[in-house]
Amino acid sequence: MKKENIPNILTLGRILFIPIFVLLLSFGQSPVLHKIAAIIFAIASITDYLDGYLARKWQVVSNFGKFADPMADKLLVMSAFIMLVGLNMAPAWVVAIIICRELAVTGLRLLLVETGGTVLAAAMPGKIKTFSQMFAIIFLLFHWNLLGQITLYIALFFTVYSGYDYFKGSAYLFKGTFR
């Protein structure tokens, strides 16, 4: 296996973990299955860091990686939050805000690329958002409810703040839209 393929293989692995993760949580209120799902989610989350790190370190950033890596992250996190709502482990309104922000920022990224080729890199609030979302999901699945709820609301704060930050920095795209 060529080392330049490893980051993309890690990204594909993260995508393949999603149906396994969802299936485990589909069996209902089994704390054992929740913990197994949390471990799978944690492994998948680690690949998020690892694939980007290796691609940059080895200078093997690819168009596939630029597309699939953020998509895999969003699919994994959004699937987890939707399952947590179904299990009554996360409030639907919090998850709705998180999902709406993810979709809005994804749309903004597409608009930026289309209008000028600009790539919207993840700023520190966005990185904190991702980190706190992933830990909230893991804590909730381990049934560490207080820690999970606190982390979930920290994630909500950084989700909203980072979304605002991205749109504020790209406000020039919308100047004159509502005259």
UniProtKB/TrEMBL annotation:
GO cellular component: plasma membrane
Residues passing through the membrane, by range: 12-30, 36-54, 75-99, 105-123, 135-161
Enzyme Commission number, as recorded: 2.7.8.5
Tagged with keyword Lipid metabolism: yes
Top enzyme class: transferase
A molecular function GO annotation: CDP-diacylglycerol-glycerol-3-phosphate 3-phosphatidyltransferase activity
One Pfam assignment: CDP-OH_P_transf
Membrane topology of the entry: Multi-pass membrane protein
Domain of life: Bacteria
Coiled-coil parts of chain: none
Keywords: Cell membrane, Lipid biosynthesis, Lipid metabolism, Membrane, Phospholipid biosynthesis, Phospholipid metabolism, Transferase, Transmembrane, Transmembrane helix
Chief place of localization: membrane
Pathway assigned to this chain's UniProt record: Phospholipid metabolism; phosphatidylglycerol biosynthesis; phosphatidylglycerol from CDP-diacylglycerol: step 1/2; Lipid metabolism
GO biological process per UniProt: phosphatidylglycerol biosynthetic process
Location in or out of the cell: Cell membrane
Entries under InterPro entries matching the protein: CDP-alcohol_PTase-I, CDP-OH_P_trans, CDP-OH_PTrfase_TM_dom, CDP_ALCOHOL_P_TRANSF_CS, Phosphatidylglycerol_P_synth
Catalytic activity from the UniProt record: a CDP-1,2-diacyl-sn-glycerol + sn-glycerol 3-phosphate = a 1,2-diacyl-sn-glycero-3-phospho-(1'-sn-glycero-3'-phosphate) + CMP + H(+)
Family designation: Belongs to the CDP-alcohol phosphatidyltransferase class-I family.
Function, as annotated: This protein catalyzes the committed step to the synthesis of the acidic phospholipids.
Name of this protein: CDP-diacylglycerol--glycerol-3-phosphate 3-phosphatidyltransferase
Species annotation: Streptococcus infantis ATCC 700779
